[in-house]
Amino acid sequence: MKCSHVKRKLSAYLDGELSIAEKKEIESHLQQCRGCQEELTAFSSVTDALSILEGMEPPPYFTTRVRQGIRDEARSIPFLERIRSIAISIATATAVVVSLLIGNQFGRTLYQSVAATAVSEAAEAPDVFGLGTLEEFPDGSLSDIYNELVAGGNSG
Ligand SMILES: [Zn+2]
Predict the structure, then answer these.
(1) In the chain, what are the domain boundaries?
(2) Which of the following CATH numbers is that of domain 1-55: 1.10.30, 1.10.10, 1.20.120, 3.40.50?
(3) How far is the CA of 54 from the centre of ligand 1 (A)?
(4) Which residues of 104-138 are buried (b: 16+ CB within 10 A; e: fewer)?
(5) How far is the CA of 36 from the centre of ligand 1 (A)?
(6) What is the pLDDT of residue 133?
(7) How much is the average pLDDT of 34-48?
(8) What's the gap in Å between 19 CA and the centre of ligand 1?
(9) Confidence bin at 129 (pLDDT 50/70/90)
(10) 3 contacts: CB under 8 Å, gap ≥ 6
């Protein structure tokens, strides 16, 4: 007898549905074949578990309580949705605050660098516009007054 044939008959064997001849054939195979013995053990433990379940009576109002549980579950979903939307709102607010802080810092840095550039450009302005040549005009002349005004009145 082949293992595949024995394994196919194990359910009927456990249920006592086999003829005496078939039963003896399977038992003689099981005594020699470890694989089929393990299959029988696994099969019988499943059958035992099923028979235990079959013998169990459901507790009173079992289906009513299951339905009530499903209804409660369905009612709790909007609550979870609310929690999720609150979490999204908090995350969005946090992102806005963080981006404002980063933007503020970036803006301050940008302003400082622009201001520094403007100051350095202002200091170089007389040379840029060729006004440095006016420094050699005599004191009190119109060009000397203009030169003092451009330099900020600190030269005199
Ligand atoms: Zn076998």
Answers:
(1) 1-55
(2) 1.10.10
(3) 30
(4) eeeeeeeeeeeeeeeeeeeeeebeeeeeeebeeee
(5) 4
(6) 53
(7) 89
(8) 19
(9) low
(10) 29, 33, 35, 36
Contact (Cβ atoms closer than 8 angstroms) between residue 108 and residue 116: no
Tell me, in angstroms, the distance from the centre of ligand 1 to residue 142's CA.
121
- CA 34 to ligand 1 center in whole angstroms: 7
Query: In sequence order, what are the residues at sequence separation of 6 or more whose Cβ sits closer than 8 angstroms to the Cβ of residue 22?
Result: 9, 13
CA of 24 to the centre of ligand 1 (A): 14
Q: How far is CA 130 from CA 117, 127, 135, 141, 147, in A?
A: 19, 5, 11, 18, 11
Does position 17 have pLDDT exceeding 60, yes or no? yes
